[in-house]
Design brief:
Layout lengths: L2 H18 L4 H56 L3 H74 L2 H27 L6 H38 L1
Helix pairs in contact: 1-2, 2-3
Amino acid sequence: MGIFSRMGDIINSNLNAMIDKAEDPEKIARLIIQEMEDTLVEVRTDAARNIAERKELSRKAEEYKARAGDWEAKAELALTKDREDLARGALSAKQQAQAMHDVVLKEIDILDEAVAKADADLSKLQTKLDEAKAKHKALMMRGQVARGQIKVRTQLKGTKVEDALARYERMERKVDELEAHVEAFDLGSGESLESQFAALEADEAVESELAALKAKVKTPKAANGSKKKAG
């Protein structure tokens, strides 16, 4: 089973349960990232184990190769001593060592393939993880914006904004009243053209009446003076 199919099974089992419960999308995104990070650690651990095992198998392959060479040298030595039976036994042991060497090489090839596949899978998974983190960050930002919009709209539908506007209107009325009082103090402080002419006419009427009154007062005195001269 591949890394992504195994990871998909783990994620799907958790995601399906969360989706059924209508969980927060941000929580789902965090779960996916956590699963991917855990899988990344798991694959790296497996790759490290395979690399260590390959090194051990490489040492065994060298040992079997050296052993096969030793048995071949012993077979040659036995033939120089006319011990064909020993040479035959040495060659049999050499073949066994060579066979083990070949088996170990096949195991090394399998491990090399596993390490190469893990390297490719790790690269793909790291790319997907980076994308998931970027999308999660964008999702969080979108969530914050959406929550802010909901808060604003809730306030607009509530009474807070209306109360604030009402207070502002009352303040405007207070200012208008103060300005009206100021303007009232200035009323009548200046004389208009009509009022000035009316004042002149009133003064003229007073002067005329005053002159008439003076003439009236002088007339009796003049009459009394005439009577005294005649006597």
